[in-house]
Structures are given as C-alpha cells and as structure tokens.
Amino acid sequence: MKAMVLDGVKQMKLVELPDPEPGPDEVIVKVAYCGVCMTDVHMYFGEFPVKTPVVLGHECSGIISKVGKEVTRVSIGDHIALNPIIHCGVCEYCLGGRTNLCENGLVVGGAGERIINGAYAEYVKVPERNVIKYDKHVPLKYSSLTEPLACVIHGIRLTGIEIGNSVVIIGAGPIGLLFTQLLAISGSSRIIVLDLKNERLKVAEKMGASHVINPKETNDVAKDIKESLDGSLADVVIEAVGSIATVKEAFRYVKKGGKILIFGVPPKGALTTFSPFDVYFTELKVIGAYAFATEDFKKSVAMISSNRVNLDPLITEIYPLEQLEKAFESAKRGDGLKKLISVSGD
Ligand SMILES: [Zn+2]
Ligand SMILES: [Zn+2]
Question: What is the pLDDT of residues 193-215, one digit of tens each?
Fold first, then answer.
C-alpha cells in the first residue's frame, strides 16, 4: 500500500509498505479521508517530539476492507470512523472511564507517547473496538471530523458549561468554531469569539457567536468583552490557540468563580506564571482537556449522524495523499480552516 512516512523533521516520503493483515480481533480500514490536526503539523515541523519512521494521521474515516476471525460487530463494506486511542481497559484510568489517560495506551497516528502507524496511508489496522459504524448516508468527509468533534465534546463535558453561561472562545480555527456551534445549540447565553483573522470571525458569526472581537483592531479586549456582557466578564473562557500569550489573556477575561479551559496544545515544556492569590481569592478553576474518552467519541458520532453540526463551512481544502506536506504548510501558515487528505474519498 501507499503511505506517507515521516522520517525526521520535515522529512516526508511517499513509500510502498506491505498491506496490513488483521489479527483475530482486528480490522483493516480502507482510508477515505484523514483530517490534518495541528498536532500532526507540530510533529512534522519538529515542535512536538515523535519517534520516526512513522505514519501520522488520526482523524480518519473509511470503509472496512478486511476483518479478523473473531470480529463480530462490523463487516466488510461498513463505513466507520476510527477512534485512534487504543486503551488497555484494565488500568485505573480506563476502569474509571478516563480512557484518554490510559497508562498503557497506544495512539493510532496521533500525538502521544506511544504512536503506531496512522491513516495517511491507503490502509490502517486497528482493533475492532476502535471503529464505530456510520450509516452509509453520512458523507465520509464529515465522519472524518468525528475525532476533533469528540475532543470538543470532551472539553465541554469536563468544564461543565451550563445553560445561560457566557463564554469567551479564544481562537476561531476549526476547534474554536466547533465549540461555537456546540455551545450555541447547548444553551450558552453569549458566545464571544476572538481571532486575529476577520474571515474566521465571519464564519464564527454564522455558527452562533453573539459577538466577535479581533484583538488587532481594539486596544482593550477585556473592556470590549465587558461591554458585550452588560458589564461582566465571562463565566467560562476557552483557550483554543495553544500559546502562552493567549493562556495568560484567558485570566483577564474570566469573572470571579469562573472557569478557564486550556484546550489548545501549548508548547511542551513552556511555563507561565499566575497569581495563586487570585485563584484563591476569586475561586477560579483552571481545567485541562486532553483528547477524548470513549463516551465522547460515541456522542460525536451521534451528533454528526443526526446532522446537528454544520461541517461544510469548516472544510476549506481537500488534498490528495501525495500533497500532505502542502497541507501541513498551509496549516502552519494558518490559511483557511480544516484540511482533509482524501485517500479514496467519495
Ligand atoms: Zn486531532
Ligand atoms: Zn488503560
């Protein structure tokens, strides 16, 4: 099969690898689409350590092409989304439902400590329990967004955002825009979206933002937020950029007793300062959300199957497998929104 193999920093090659064969409880997925995640881009540019050679790609939809002897839940021809977290099922985290924190987990093509070959290839092999079936009427390019949407559902769940809360979202990339949509339909009172690109803010408005702010065009973002919230700061601030500067900003936009969600991937090892007194005195909660648990993935499939999220405006580019590096460069520049790699897409 053809696969794009990462061999080192900015070293990517299209190579021929042996077709994978399923073990007894495994399936082979013929990859339809695989989304480009910023973690892939960080690994390609050497900003996130990864052992090479490796095939990246973890946001995958496809069709089952082979099944192992003991596979019972799916059959050849089924349309699926791939859950890239292979959890052990027996560690204390898995037993508590926090499968994303598994002590012995492997991640298919994704960011993590132990990565196995992912979906920037014609085929990918995973255990049967790592695929979820989709109805065939759901376009495969939409189901490739199951993983990022699951991450967003996970972030909202851990933060405990309630009906009537006001929310500031820092960053209107694909992730910030998925947050905007889900919060708009789940009852946030005001959703203020911040981004440096006006074209992204326009999409945010269409997706349910009540106010948008371009920090380049104002000299006091916190004041603008207060004006949009009748004099208050936000109940919840979601950081969806992953920079230290925006993490620091989040503390300026949140009200007393509020919550800050650190969702964007900050540079590994980077440090920041905060005032423990302020956290104590204003009862702030700072929450992290990494990837998703199995239950979030199921909810994501339910939302996409029932057409409750508008994914079309988020998908701005589709590249063939051979042009994966072009897609990474475009993502690095911050062009457009979500980029998909079509391997055998419809
Ligand atoms: Zn991802
Ligand atoms: Zn585990």
Answer: 999 999 999 999 999 999 999 99
Residue type (1 letter), 326: K
Whole-angstrom distance, CA of residue 248 vs CA of residue 272: 8
44-64: per-residue pLDDT in tens?
Answer: 999 888 999 999 999 999 999
Distance between CA atoms of residues 194 and 216, nearest Å: 10
Task: Report the C-alpha gap between 27 and 18 in whole angstroms.
Answer: 16
Percentage with pLDDT > 70 across the chain: 100
User: Do 161 and 255 reside in the same domain of the chain?
Assistant: yes
Q: What six digits make up the tokens of 68? A: 């192992």
- 3-class DSSP assignment, residue 325: helix
Q: 204 with 113, same domain?
A: no
Distance (Å) from CA 24 to ligand 1 centroid: 28
DSSP letters along 244-256, please?
HHHHHHHHHHEEE
The DSSP bridge pattern shows strands 190-194 and 211-213 to be parallel
In terms of Cβ atoms closer than 10 Å to its own Cβ (0-12, 13-18, 19+), residue 116 is middle
Distance 41 CA to ligand 2 centre (A): 27
User: Diameter of the chain by CA atoms?
Assistant: 63
Ligand nearest to the CA of 175: 1
Taking Cα atoms as reference points, which of 154, 187, 193 lies closest to residue 174? 193
- Helical pair 198-206 and 174-185, crossing angle rounded to 10 deg: 20
Q: Indicate the pTM of the whole model.
A: 0.97
267 alpha carbon to ligand 2 midpoint, in Å?
A: 26
CA of 192 to the centre of ligand 1 (A): 24
Q: Which domain holds residue 55?
A: 2-145+311-342
Asked if residue 315 and residue 228 are part of one domain, the reply reads: no
Here the CATH number for the domain that contains residue 221 is: 3.40.50.720
Under 8 Å between Cβ of 310 and 155: no
